[in-house]
Write a structure and sequence with these properties.
It contains 21 helices and 8 strands. The protein is an alpha/beta fold. Strand 7, helix 9 and strand 8 form a beta-alpha-beta unit. Helix 1 (2-52) runs parallel beside helix 17 (443-470) and helix 4 packs across helix 5.
């Protein structure tokens, strides 16, 4: 009777989890449909807004000399678009670091309403454009090809006298571009990255990045101070916030003096008290300076550009009420989480646990004298190999590519992870036996738990990118080949440490808190990276080193807790690390 009752309880629990899982999955699908409907509604609102404002938006894709595709958007008044005499003043807009072609729409809108066509370009290594970034070495020459493309395809655009509007990193590109390209007629640059040397003094990124396929040596890159001068620079307005901590006011002032702006009437520097980097770009008065500057060169030469403070009072900005919200994005996130919960409810209860119950009891600890000796040897062998792989990585990258990013965060995890595969735990006589046992006992739960993670992840990315396309926003370039290093950076260290710590007792896992900072210090002996003054100097440098081990240790602790339910810890590292990778891919540019 008791057996029958237990069986009935088990059946009822299984049915409960089954129905709960089905309900959650159905809820996820419903939320996805609702998110798409919100995205379609938002898209229509945006299209209606452009239609009401008589603005046309067209996508462009330009293939560079090295095969890289550069993406962009071109905005123009629909009536002006009908002009076929190449007379509509056209502005090339260059975004800042991590920028996208969809950014700065509030600024683009103002210029379109003032009668300009605006080409917003995504630099290489950003968004949908190919990569990696050339960090000023390739981008100005890319923009020459973009101007050629605009000239060939758009009959309304005046490409013989183009305007140029650049922000920060884009300002650095623009400072070079206006010097090498005679078709640039008038330029406005917000806090331009004119001096790489000055930036590197505060953010020493040489050994952080090292050599990439696009950058052989960052010290060899020619910046605006190398290329621009008073003979090839004209009609330039510089706008600098005096509270800017990223591009310092002194740097912009040095560039202003470098092109002899103090003795020129066509070169001006407007310094904005109380404004930082972001504040300057959002400031309406700074925008009025830019509009007034272009208006002088394209529409009204009676404007006195040597007295901009007085002239901007004659201009009013157009009302900008572009529809935008994040409802559909938030619903997609909720939908993916609920799908994960639904799959977990079904697969863990109905697939993983029944399989696990059928396996023989696993011997987790060998408390015999011989077992304790083998356990100590395992720790010694793995730790020695871990640090040995680290030292070898340091030597290789000290000689071939002084790069923390490639060496410590990509090559070292791969090399160490491979070595750890061949050092078995004390419960197995050799690595072949361990992995055969893993395939026999753990591979099925692993595949099931992996599916619980991979399916919602793919589901989220596909839905998110569909939403981005529908709402005319920017997507996650997750499936792009250039995203592979990001995935390795995001997942590699966690997987390496998992293979190192597998079968370690809980108390001994604390070694990760010590070995990680030590490993970073050892690698830094081969590829030194000094403290970043802009990020807090030596204090933040030491804190970062210490936190490497702490963060990874607690990631492992979380994984071990979740593995009690999923019966597999290896795949759960994906669960913990994938959101970080996705965030990384959405927000940061592909400099590597």
């Amino acid at each position: 009777m008791k057996l029958i009752n237990r069986l009935q309880d088990k059946i009822s629990k299984n049915l409960l989890f089954k129905y709960a899982g089905i309900v959650l999955i159905c809820t996820s699908i419903v939320l996805a449909i609702i998110s798409i409907s919100f995205a379609l509604a938002l898209r229509q609102q945006k299209l209606n807004y452009f239609a009401d404002e008589n603005i046309d938006v067209d996508s462009i894709s330009v293939k560079m000399r090295d095969g890289i595709d550069i993406k962009g958007l071109i905005y123009v008044d629909k009536d002006l678009k009908e002009n076929n005499t190449n007379s509509i003043p056209t502005i090339l807009l260059l975004h800042g670091i991590n920028g996208r072609k969809e950014h700065k729409l509030n600024i683009i809108f103002q210029f379109v309403k003032f009668g300009y066509a605006v080409v917003s370009v995504e630099q290489r290594g950003h968004g949908e454009s190919g990569g990696p970034s050339g960090f000023l070495s390739k981008e100005p020459y890319d923009m020459v090809e973009v101007i050629d493309y605009i000239n060939a395809k758009y009959q309304y655009a005046n490409t013989s006298h183009m305007g140029l509007l650049g922000f920060s990193y884009g300002g650095g590109i623009g400072a070079i571009l206006q010097a090498i390209e005679n078709r640039i007629y008038a330029t406005v640059l917000y806090h331009p990255l004119a001096s790489l040397e000055s930036l590197i003094d505060r953010i020493p990124i040489q050994n952080l990045i090292g050599t990439t396929t696009a950058i052989t040596d960052i010290d060899d890159i020619q910046d605006a101070l190398d290329i621009a001068n008073e003979t090839n620079t004209e009609n330039l307005l510089l706008i600098q916030g005096l509270s800017d901590k990223i591009i310092l006011p002194k740097e912009t002032n040095d560039f202003y003096n470098h092109v002899n702006g103090i003795n020129r009437t066509d070169i001006e520097l407007k310094e904005r008290p109380g404004l930082g980097h972001v504040g300057n770009e959002k400031d309406m008065t700074s925008l009025k300076y830019a509009i007034t500057w272009f208006e002088h060169f394209y529409h009204n030469q009676t404007i006195n550009i040597t007295n901009l403070d007085n002239e901007i009072t004659t201009y009013s900005l157009f009302n900008y009420n572009y529809p935008n919200n994040h409802v559909s994005e938030n619903l997609i996130i909720a939908s993916a989480i609920i799908l994960f919960l639904g799959l977990s409810s079904l697969i863990v209860k109905l697939r993983i646990l029944p399989f696990w119950d059928q396996l023989p009891i696993k011997k987790d600890v060998d408390n015999s004298r011989e077992g304790k000796v083998r356990y100590k040897k395992m720790i010694i062998y793995r730790t020695s190999s871990y640090l040995g792989a680290l030292t070898l990585s340091g030597i290789i990258f000290a000689l071939l590519n002084r790069s923390i990013l490639y060496g410590y965060f990509i090559f070292f995890p791969i090399l160490s992870g491979i070595i750890m595969l061949f050092i078995p735990s004390e419960l197995h006589s050799n690595w072949k036996e361990e992995w055969k046992n893993w395939i026999r006992n753990d591979s099925i739960p692993f595949l099931y738990s992996l599916s619980i993670i991979i399916i919602p992840t793919i589901y989220f990315i596909l839905l998110y990118n569909l939403n981005a396309d529908l709402t005319m926003s920017f997507s996650i370039p997750f499936l792009d080949i250039s995203s592979v290093p990001y995935i390795v950076v995001g997942l590699g260290s966690g997987m390496m440490d998992y293979l190192y710590l597998r079968e370690f007792k809980g108390r001994d896992a604390m070694i990760l808190l010590i070995i990680r900072p030590i490993s970073f210090l050892i690698f830094s002996a081969f590829v030194p990276i000094p403290p970043f003054p802009i990020l807090g100097g030596i204090f933040s440098h030491i804190l970062f080193i210490l936190l490497i081990g702490v963060v990874l240790y607690y990631i492992r602790s979380l994984v071990m807790f979740l593995s009690k339910f999923f019966k597999n810890s290896f795949s759960l590292y994906l669960l913990i690390m994938l959101p970080f990778v996705i965030f990384y891919m959405r927000v940061f540019f592909r400099i590597i």
